[in-house]
Specification:
Length: 244
C-alpha cells in the first residue's frame, strides 16, 4: 500500500518558509507515496494556495470539536477545510500533555474532522515511564480504543504511533519495538472497527530522519511517517520521502 509521509511543522513557520513546501512539491517527482504538510494554522490557507495542483496535501495540527462559537483562540475543523486543508493531526502528545486533552476529547475532535470532510491522523504513544513499567502496549491500545469513534469505519484516516520519549530527542525505538507496537495497534483497530481497521495506515513518528527513514518505513505494519523537526527543511523531508 502507498505510504503516507506527513510533516508536522508544530509552532514553526512564517510566510517566508512557504518556499520549503514549494520545494517539497517540486522535488517529489512521481514518488509513489502520499505526502502532506501540516503548518501552523496561520499558514494553512496560503500553503494550500501555494501547493494547489501539486501532490502535497495540507493539514491542520489540531481543531476544536465544535463547528463555531464563543471559543476564543480556537479553530474548527470546518475552518481548516475552508482554508484548504484535507488532513488534521489530532491527539498529539504535545496537546495531550500540555493541554490536558483526554481520549474522549480526541474522539470528539475526530468526529468533528469527519463532519468537515477532513482525514484525521490520530496520535497515540507511551511515555518513557510507561514503557519502563512494561505498559507500552496497554497504554497505546487503550488510547486507540478510546480515541477512535466507530464513525471512522468507511472513512479515510490514519493512526500515528509516536512514543513520547522519541519525539524531538534523537532517540528511536528499535524496528522490533516499532513492529511490536504497530502489530498491537493493528489488532486493536480491527477489534474496534473491523475491516476498516485493517486498512488504515499506521504511521511511525519520533526522530524520523533521512538516515533512519528507510529502515523504519520497511518495518512490518509501518504505513508511513509523521515527521517533526526534519520536515522543516525540504532537503531533509525529501530525503525521508525517498526512503519510503
Ligand atoms: P520529531 O520528528 O521532531 O521527533 O517530532 C515528531 C512529532 O512529534 C511529529 O508529530
Amino acid at each position: 500500500m502507498q505510504k503516507l509521509i506527513v510533516g508536522n511543522w508544530k509552532m514553526n513557520g512564517l510566510s517566508a518558509d512557504l518556499v520549503e513546501a514549494e520545494a517539497v512539491a517540486a522535488g517529489l517527482g512521481d514518488a509513489a507515496v502520499r505526502v502532506g504538510i501540516c503548518p501552523p494554522a496561520t499558514l494553512v490557507e496560503r500553503m494550500s494556495r501555494t501547493l494547489a495542483g501539486t501532490l502535497v496535501a495540507v493539514g491542520g495540527q489540531d481543531c476544536r470539536a465544535e463547528a463555531s462559537g464563543a471559543f476564543t483562540g480556537d479553530v474548527s475543523a470546518e475552518m481548516l477545510a475552508d482554508a484548504g486543508a484535507t488532513l488534521v493531526i489530532l491527539g498529539h502528545s504535545e496537546r495531550r500533555a500540555g493541554f490536558g486533552e483526554t481520549d474522549a476529547l480526541v474522539a470528539a475532535k475526530v468526529e468533528a474532522a469527519l463532519r468537515a470532510g477532513l482525514e484525521p491522523i490520530v496520535c497515540v504513544g507511551e511515555t518513557l515511564a510507561e514503557r519502563e513499567a512494561g505498559r507500552a502496549i496497554a497504554v497505546v491500545t487503550g488510547q486507540v480504543r478510546r480515541s477512535l469513534p466507530a464513525a471512522l469505519a468507511g472513512r479515510p484516516f490514519a493512526v500515528a504511533y509516536e512514543p513520547v520519549w522519541a519525539i524531538g530527542t534523537g532517540l528511536t525505538p528499535t524496528t522490533d519495538q516499532i513492529a511490536e507496537i504497530h502489530a498491537a495497534i493493528r489488532a486493536e483497530l480491527v477489534a474496534v472497527l473491523g475491516d476498516a481497521g485493517a486498512r488504515a495506515p499506521i504511521l511511525y513518528g519520533g526522530s524520523v530522519k533521512p538516515a533512519n527513514a528507510a529502515e523504519i518505513l520497511a518495518a512490518a505494519e509501518v504505513g508511513g511517517a509523521l515527521v517533526g523537526g526534519a520536515s522543516l527543511k525540504a532537503s531533509d523531508f525529501l530525503g525521508i520521502i525517498a526512503g519510503a
